[in-house]
């Protein structure tokens, strides 16, 4: 019995560093706010705070037929989006998922863009559009410096992509060149013109805002994690003079919060498992916040945590199998499956452990594995909540300075966060943990989370629709006429 109690103590000890108090989460929220302001002022910050040149949420009047690309998550997608004349009608989306092999992700930019062009051509051919002329919105989910809507330069790769010769290049240019190369081979006559390059967070916000005018924050918790929000343009000090518009306008900022912590502000809460995951990644020292939250890394954090439990608390009789010791073998999908399983005997967990080389585990062992998953996913949701809280409170401050954007009631600030990403959508408790914690971290605010379906693709089409409607004056006129 004493032995069992001692083991329990060791397990609690190992897991304790994943339980963050509200005080710690408030600290994270406030650090995030500090970095946000530094980034807006062009001072040293781990948030890149990238202006998107999207100056308004949709007014629901956008319509037409568009192509959209979505690159940067688990899959690459080509979409055809039809925005109806009346916003009450359904937006029609045809889409096709294509694989981007890991070798292509990490080869040359030319190879990557040739692959994208080939997929676009395949899509056009399958949809009888091989001689069509369509404007294209490109959701490119990586940090980019923008000089305008269709003028976007990659700052650095994240999430396992590493194709050479793309950083610092104009993405629309790379895509156009690849399409021209492709057309020389196929002799097809389609004309595809990139009108807008946007981040997936921006697409998600725009899609939700199409129907919910209180939506001024977009967030992704998928392969990577990031958020954007509508900032007051006058406070974006990094904009050049010629990029500014007169007046009290807003502009959507891509925070790139995945990089939060790169300047050391999360060291007090990072664990040895976080450090191990970072060290083994292709970009050590980068995307510290993302590595504590998102789907690309969550399974890895659990794997290292299980190895610690084996070593320090004698889990599985103190034996680590070769599979458990292998990078990438504990998938984030396992975390979801284990936590979603309601069976008494924790059957899903048993099957997963079997695949990891642990046959015939005891119920106690499986419960500990489940607890490890719960601790890591709960911490991820809590950290995300700190980030959302920082953006909600900033948005509330902006609302007091500028004319209302949504249908807000002054006594209680109301805001909607548009969300997408596999972790948010698939994990059984993530969304509830997130929204409960956000309520605690920003009292007196009504924060609604709205899951966007096809957010990135539809969002790119929406931004493109406005770009086409307004032609040359896109940036000047891309505002809501009726307050949303
Ligand atoms: C990574 C990218 C970011 C993107 C996020 C979600 O953090 O750097 O641009 O929004 O993943 O896909």
Automatic annotation (TrEMBL):
The keyword Translocase does not apply. Keywords: ATP-binding, Glycolysis, Kinase, Nucleotide-binding, Transferase. InterPro entries: ATPase_NBD, Hexokinase, Hexokinase_BS, Hexokinase_C, Hexokinase_N. GO terms for molecular function: ATP binding; D-glucose binding; fructokinase activity; glucokinase activity. Residues 217-466 form the Hexokinase C-terminal domain. Gene3D superfamilies: 3.30.420.40, 3.40.367.20. Its EC number is 2.7.1.-. One of its GO terms (cellular component) is cytosol. GO terms for biological process: glucose metabolic process; glycolytic process; intracellular glucose homeostasis. The keyword ATP-binding applies. It comes from the Eukaryota. CDD domains: ASKHA_NBD_HK_meta. Pathway: Carbohydrate degradation; glycolysis; D-glyceraldehyde 3-phosphate and glycerone phosphate from D-glucose: step 1/4; Carbohydrate metabolism; hexose metabolism. It catalyses: D-mannose + ATP = D-mannose 6-phosphate + ADP + H(+); a D-hexose + ATP = a D-hexose 6-phosphate + ADP + H(+); D-glucose + ATP = D-glucose 6-phosphate + ADP + H(+); D-fructose + ATP = D-fructose 6-phosphate + ADP + H(+). Residues 11-210 form the Hexokinase N-terminal domain. Catalyzes the phosphorylation of various hexoses to hexose 6-phosphate. Belongs to the hexokinase family. This is Phosphotransferase.
């Amino acid at each position: 019995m004493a032995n069992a109690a001692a083991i329990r103590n060791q397990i609690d000890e190992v897991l304790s560093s994943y339980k963050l108090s509200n005080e710690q989460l408030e600290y994270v929220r406030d650090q995030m706010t500090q970095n946000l302001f530094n980034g807006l002022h062009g001072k040293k910050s781990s948030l890149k705070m990238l202006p998107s040149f999207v100056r308004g949420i949709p007014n629901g009047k956008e319509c037409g037929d568009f192509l959209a690309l979505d690159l940067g998550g688990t899959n690459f997608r080509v979409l055809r989006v039809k925005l109806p004349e009346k916003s009450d009608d359904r937006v029609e989306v045809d889409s096709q998922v294509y694989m981007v092999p890991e070798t292509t992700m990490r080869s040359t930019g030319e190879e990557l863009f040739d692959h994208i062009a080939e997929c676009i051509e395949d899509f056009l051919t399958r949809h009888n559009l091989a001689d069509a002329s369509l404007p294209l919105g490109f959701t490119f989910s990586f940090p980019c410096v923008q000089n305008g809507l269709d003028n976007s330069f990659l700052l650095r790769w994240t999430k396992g992509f590493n194709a050479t010769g793309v950083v610092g290049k104009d993405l629309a240019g790379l895509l156009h060149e690849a399409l021209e190369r492709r057309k020389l081979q196929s002799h097809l006559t389609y004309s595809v013109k990139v009108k807008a390059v946007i981040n997936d967070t921006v697409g998600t916000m725009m899609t939700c805002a199409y129907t919910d005018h209180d939506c001024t924050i977009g967030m992704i918790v998928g392969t990577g994690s990031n958020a954007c929000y509508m900032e007051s343009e006058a406070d974006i000090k990094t904009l050049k003079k010629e990029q500014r518009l007169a007046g009290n306008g807003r502009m959507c900022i891509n925070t790139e919060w995945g990089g939060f912590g790169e300047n050391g502000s999360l060291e007090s809460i990072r664990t040895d498992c976080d450090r191990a995951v970072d060290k083994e990644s292709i970009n050590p020292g980068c995307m510290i916040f993302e590595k504590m939250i998102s789907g690309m890394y969550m399974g890895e954090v659990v794997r290292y945590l299980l190895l610690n439990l084996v070593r320090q608390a004698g889990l599985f009789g103190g034996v680590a199998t070769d599979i458990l010791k292998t990078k990438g073998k504990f998938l984030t999908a396992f975390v979801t499956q284990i936590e979603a399983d309601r069976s008494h005997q924790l059957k899903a967990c048993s099957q997963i452990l079997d695949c990891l080389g642990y046959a015939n585990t005891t119920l106690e062992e499986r419960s500990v594995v489940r607890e490890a998953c719960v601790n890591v996913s709960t911490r991820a949701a809590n950290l995300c909540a700190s980030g959302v809280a920082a953006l909600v409170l900033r948005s509330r401050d902006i609302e007091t300075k500028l004319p209302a954007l949504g249908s807000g009631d002054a006594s209680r600030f109301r805001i909607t966060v548009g969300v997408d990403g596999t972790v948010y959508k698939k994990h059984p408790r993530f969304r509830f943990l997130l929204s409960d914690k956000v309520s605690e971290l920003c009292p007196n605010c009504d924060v609604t989370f709205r899951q966007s379906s096809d957010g990135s693709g539809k969002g790119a089409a929406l931004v493109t629709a406005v770009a086409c409607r307004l032609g040359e004056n896109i940036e000047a006129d891309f505002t809501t006429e009726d307050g949303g």
